[in-house]
Design goal:
The protein is mainly α and about 525 residues long. It has one domain. About 60% of the residues lie in helices and about 0% in strands. It has 22 helices and two strands. The chain has helices at about 5-20, 20-30, 35-50, 55-70, 80-90, 95-115, 115-125, 125-150, 175-205, 215-235, 270-275, 280-310, 330-335, 365-380, 390-400, 405-420, 425-430, 435-455, 460-475, 480-500, 505, 515-525, and strands spanning about 80, 385. The chain has a two-stranded antiparallel sheet. Helix 12 (about 280-310) crosses helix 15 (about 390-400). The protein is globular and about 75 Å long. The protein starts with a helix and ends in a 12-residue tail after the last helix.
Length: about 525
């Protein structure tokens, strides 16, 4: 059972250890910012278009960040539903339609998770296909970073929207992106050296002497905020600045008393969302999002969490009573945990098939219920459609997050911003954040996600072919559902060829479904299933 007192005590101990250790806390703060490259562009674009309620989005996404960190104990992100966001921006959808699409996805995921449909899907989905979804999603982020964020910039300067030719145009350019990328490469090299040194020191039962890892995402974010403040101040001082656009309808009047600026839920209820549930545009957006949520936000995220947080390194995140640590860690455990960075996953992690869908740190059923609760509870307040995701998990892990502390701190920050700063000023500040820095953060997240997917493909050469077919189709069609179908078709073609050629036993040597062969055998005890040769 997932929700137990014993598990909660272990997760609280895990989070507190990373919060109370100064150098681990720095890594957690840096990791909490690793997913901003995905969150900020969509949040800003949808807010400026009027397709979401920005204060409600900050409030609810912050609350869900906090709850996710307390329940799961890993840096599982709370991020926008990308397919719905893209369709809303492309079709200029209003707030009610956008939020209604997210509510439909939440309802569908609730049915799949509550009825056990996801377990049935996992039983027959090859691990190579899910790895292909991870690689495709990672490479899609890299393409988005280069084509959508960095490529439109000038090499040395980028003209401001208001035509200002002063200092502001020098604070966002491809040259800055190159410098930020160089810092990212150096940081990744440092992390690799720390991992190698840490493994050697642990083999000798000594503490690692490598210096603390630089919290690169934190540094990049702080520099970006300084640049944004300068650009905003220059835009206000420029005589060519256009008059401010009218604030969104949910903002408070500027002449009201200070205490009325605190977020009031009664002023942010959108009853039209319920009427928009029957809008064909909302249904179409939800259908496009559902495969991405099922594959990337649930199946791939659960698999990635098991890869990044294996039981040998993070026993406190698993439902193994023998791994239940005491509330006061032993000296040896404290010594090993206090090394910097935290103990990385093994280069040869436990195969995914050896962990069932409900044994990992992020089981399928609680994960699906979390996504459905986020969207169904926040929809009446105009909150942006939310989900978890493997890309954000990889990004936050890449930049140092190793516990739920990172997203709890991020959630507190978002909650306080939404509670006390519901006006348009925050949106204007975030809109001036350099796209050069956002692009580098997105690129780092995409590379990390793809790296984990490639590294953990088990089985024969045909499994790697299935992974490449899935990832390549996702990149070509920009659709996870199409990539999934292509991967399953490739996998089925290999199995049919093996069956027709009399190599049925050899064909079973490849990678099994994500629940693993052992669990399938347990499911088959006492009953006879009529299996298609495609699924053998």
């Amino acid at each position: 059972m997932f929700f137990t007192i014993s598990r909660l005590r272990r997760i609280i101990t895990h989070n507190l250890h990373h919060f109370l250790s100064p150098h681990l806390l720095l890594s957690e703060i840096s990791g909490s910012l690793g997913d901003l490259g995905t969150l900020l562009p969509l949040l800003l674009a949808l807010s400026l278009q009027g397709s979401i309620d920005l204060p409600s989005t900050l409030i609810f996404s912050g609350l869900f960040n906090i709850l996710t960190g307390l329940v799961f104990g890993v840096p599982l992100p709370v991020q926008p539903m990308k397919a719905i966001a893209a369709a809303s921006l492309q079709g200029n959808a209003d707030l009610e339609t956008t939020v209604a699409a997210g509510a439909w996805v939440g309802f569908a995921v609730l049915l799949l998770g509550g009825t056990g449909g996801l377990k049935r899907v996992m039983r027959w989905v090859p691990g190579a296909v899910v790895r292909g979804v991870q690689v495709g999603a990672g490479m899609s982020l890299v393409v988005a970073a280069g084509g959508g964020m960095v490529r439109p910039l000038g090499w040395l300067w980028t003209p401001e929207e208001n035509g200002d030719g002063g200092l502001g145009k020098w604070l966002d350019s491809r040259a800055l992106a190159v410098l930020a990328f160089g810092g990212l490469v150096l940081t990744l090299g440092q992390q690799q050296q720390q991992q190698q040194s840490g493994e050697k020191e642990r083999s000798r039962k000594k503490r690692s002497r490598m210096p603390v890892q630089v919290p690169y995402a934190l540094v990049l974010f702080l520099v970006g905020i300084v640049f944004a403040v300068v650009r905003v101040s220059l835009s206000k001082d420029s005589p060519q600045s256009p008059p401010p656009s009218p604030p969104p309808p949910y903002d408070q009047p500027t002449n009201s008393a200070p205490w009325t600026w605190i977020w009031n839920p009664l002023n942010h209820i959108h009853p039209e969302v319920f009427r928009s549930l029957l809008n064909p545009q909302a249904l179409s957006m939800a259908i496009a999002q559902l495969p991405l949520t099922t594959l990337n936000s649930i199946i791939a995220a659960s698999a990635l969490a098991s890869d990044l947080f294996p039981p040998d390194s993070y026993p406190q995140l698993y439902d193994d009573e023998s791994a239940d640590p005491p509330l006061s860690p032993s000296p040896s455990a404290s010594s090993s945990l206090s090394s910097a960075p935290p103990q990385p996953p093994s280069e040869n992690p436990k195969p995914l098939s050896s962990l069932t869908s409900e044994e990992g740190p992020v089981p399928l059923t609680p994960l699906s219920l979390s996504i459905s609760a986020m969207n169904l509870l926040s929809a009446p307040f105009g909150c942006m459609p939310l989900c978890h995701g493997s890309g954000g998990l990889a990004a936050q892990h890449r930049f140092g997050a190793r516990s739920g502390t990172s997203i709890i701190l991020l959630g507190l920050t978002k909650f306080l911003l939404g509670l006390f700063f519901p006006g348009p000023g925050l949106l204007g500040l975030l809109g001036k954040f350099p796209k050069a820095f956002l692009g580098v953060m997105v690129l780092g997240a995409g590379v990390e996600l793809a790296r984990v997917g490639v590294r953990n493909v088990e089985g024969e050469e045909q499994d790697r072919m299935v992974m490449l077919m899935t990832a390549g189709t996702i990149l070509a069609f920009k659709n996870d559902g199409v990539g999934f179908l292509a991967g399953m078709g490739c996998y089925g073609g290999f199995k049919v060829a093996a069956w027709m050629g009399g190599g049925k036993e050899k064909g079973r040597g490849g990678e099994q479904g994500l629940l693993g062969e052992e669990e399938e055998e347990e499911e088959e005890e006492g009953r006879v299933d009529e299996e298609s040769p495609l699924l053998r």
